[in-house]
Specification:
It contains 6 helices and 4 strands, in the order βαβααβααβα. It is α/β, with parallel strands linked by helices.
């Protein structure tokens, strides 16, 4: 089974989910994508570095690379599509994600890398995402 995780820029939530899934799954694979092109800015760089930092805290490596935008082919090739966006961000989803019967929603608030409490919010998201991934694996494996 192939699982696709989607967040806004493919820098935080979806990357964490992909990393947890691929570490804990015995027989399935996953990939992650974003709904918008990854912005090149100091805020975006800080966001990715924060993801890498909080995942390193639990012993999981996340690649330091630009995020990838979701395509219709990504959705078609996946068996399950998990959207990790809050309700407002879900409005930005392309129709091929919204209308896919494979799509599941898991509203996880975006961590604002400009916030002074950013790393703590990222840790909370990491822990929620790990629980969500473990529950998903229990369901499909």
């Amino acid at each position: 089974m192939k699982v696709l995780f989607i967040c806004k820029y493919n820098a935080g939530r979806s990357r964490m989910a992909e990393a947890f899934f691929n570490k804990f799954s015995k027989k399935n694979t996953s990939l992650s994508r974003g709904i918008e092109p990854y912005p090149i800015s100091p805020s975006a760089e800080r966001g990715l570095k924060g993801t890498i930092e909080v995942m390193n805290e639990v012993g999981i490596k996340v690649p330091n690379k630009l995020g990838s935008p979701v395509t219709k082919e990504d959705v078609e090739e996946a068996d399950v599509v998990v959207v990790l966006l809050d309700e407002k961000q879900q409005l930005l989803l392309p129709d091929y994600v919204k209308n896919s019967p494979k799509t599941r929603y898991n509203g996880i608030v975006d961590s604002d890398s400009r916030s002074p409490d950013y790393l703590n919010q990222n840790r909370l998201n990491r822990d929620k995402i790990q629980k969500m991934v473990l529950a998903l694996l229990k369901e499909i494996e």
